[in-house]
Amino acid sequence: MSENKDSMPKNITELYGTNVFNGKVMKEMLPQEIFASFKKTLLMGSPLSLDMANIIAEAMKNWAIENGAYHFTHWFQPMTGITAEKHTSFIVPDGDHGVLLSFSGKELVKGESDASSFPNGGLRTTFEARGYTAWDATSYAFIKDNVLCIPTMFCSYAGEALDKKTPLIRSLEAIDKQAQRILKLFGHKDVQKIIPTVGAEQEYFLVDKELFLLRPDLLHCGRTLFGAKALKGQDMEDHYYGAIKAKVLDFMQELEEELLKLGVLSKMQHNEVAPAQHELAPLFETANIATDHNQLTMELMQDIADKHGLACLLHEKPFAGINGSGKHNNWSLITDTGHNLLDPGDTPQDNAQFLLFLMAVIKAVDSYQDLLRASVATAANDHRLGGNEAPPAIISIFLGNELTAILEAIENDTPYCGDKKQKLEIGVSTLPHFPRDVTDRNRTSPFAFTNNKFEYRMVGSALSIAHPNWIINTIVAESLESFTEVLEKSTNFTEDLQKLIKDTIKTHKKIIFNGNNYSKEWEEEAQKRGLSINKNAPDALQALIKEDNIAVLEKHHVLSRLESESRYGLLLKTYCKTVRLEALTLLEMIKKNILPDTLRYQKSLAESISLKKSLSLDFSLEETLLLKFTHYSKDMYQLLLLLEEQLITVNTHKNKERAFYYRDSVLSTMEELRAILDPLETWIPRDQWSLPTYEDLLYSVV
Ligand code: ADP
Ligand code: MG
After folding, report:
1. What is the CATH number of domain 574-698?
2. C-alpha of residue 476 to centroid of ligand 1, in Å
3. pLDDT digits over 147-169, tens only?
């Protein structure tokens, strides 16, 4: 790929989407009327006839074969958070004569899958193990590794969602419906569809593959379970936007190229704050496609890193003491006529509409803080949130001083003291021009309004963005519906709109915070304001089964009660499994590496002592060291026994108590162990320490 460096810009237009069965290809390959009615189906969600599916399937197969793909798969996103695929060949026997290449509309639209081996939170038992995948025509099919991948949803035969995609798609319908009702009130007749747009900025680490393989904790758990700080951490701040190393540059270029072929445009790639950390910002797309593309991005990052002798770490906190990785989920709403509904307009009417959509988000986030927080709650993200590098585990909204001042003026009927003093009458006066707040560059807010979109920054780097987005879509749909109910009955639209906006500001302004979210004072202030504070996943996940939260998802047909409850169970279980695996890995590393390394070092000290003794030399230093390490080892051993015991005791607990036990007992013993291991590492001679250190890992890529 490196020979392409110079020709890359020329190739962009040629490469873009070459592996995608997109609108352009369909237009070329499908009969005109089929293409037209397919587009209508996409826009209006009307069902697709089998005849039409047959024709599309035939074209898809021909295109796939032309591009070297002889297999197809229904590509889906089970609740494991990664994607799943089962390859089927186009080749079928043709009588006695040989074989045919065939792919029917039925095969395109629906696939059977053994659901029993995917986590489902108890929604299905193994004797009714069949689930099915259903084509999601809103996301284009593509070729990856010579296989035609058809984006699908994954459901049980009773229709329950078993994946991350189904609720997301349901939430798109919910927000479209409610946003349309609002736009009708503002007199828009031309808008047929309103779609959330998402751009997910992805952070990741790259380390040397061989060193990665030598660390069982990175290999099995994705993060280091101990490790003394590297001499040079991120304190020098020279990595951020610094020159990109040659090997990383090669990786980034290949990644960009492969993504381009899949129709994913990366807007920017750069180094992050921490050493070995990088970021990719894609161009935003509709929420559904952005979700698929983010999954593909994560997959490709790992595959391509591997080809370059690197390992891509997507974990939220691979190394203690330096920044973790997140995913900034930029979210907005756009009409099919191209209008961004979170973009303040130029006319009084546009401004009023903008303010109402802004209010919808503020009300939604305030009313369902805990549900939004729960959508990013995992064992891994717990290590990152609140760590002075990422937003705390408290949801609040950043609006910037200017926009906040405008809202205050509206709330209090006072003149806005911006560039010109004026009273704001909604629907009559235009919003004063508010410059983008400079403090926007202060990245401490978990949910920040940035110009014409909101940026949800609590999402973890390894997470699928489906869950946070179906929550945002649903809760904003709920606000919009409540607004419509008031405004549809209104006899004086402008007056009632003004009152609605004022009331919403009054009730929900407690969620707005423009200060430093990392400060201790903010936590106290948030507590006073009554905001919900859930510092860890087991606490945060409880929100998933709170009545109000179940109700809002059920009302908008995004998740049934049963689906919410089963997802809760599943996420708690995943939390437990994650911590368990970490504890087991830590025990193994202590037994296989650390303890033997330490004992070997003690042996060499003991030998040195007896040698010096025989020569009548002073051996007090060796003796002090030997005593010190004897203590370290004994303490380590005691904690190791305790951890082993806890891993047995934990099984006597069930459900949420089990998760709490992992959090309160297992994780805290692991932390106590770490408190011994990290300083110990600094004392053991390099040639006697058998594991790669932070220094090795963070500065391994040149
Ligand atoms: P910022 O400077 O605020 O970080 P950028 O323009 O650099 O904003 O964009 C950051 C990310 O936000 C990119 O991934 C971009 O595609 C995405 N983004 C921009 N506009 C929108 C929008 N209207 N909806 C969703 N995402 C958007
Ligand atoms: Mg950003």
Report:
1. 1.20.120.1560
2. 19
3. 999 999 998 888 889 899 999 99
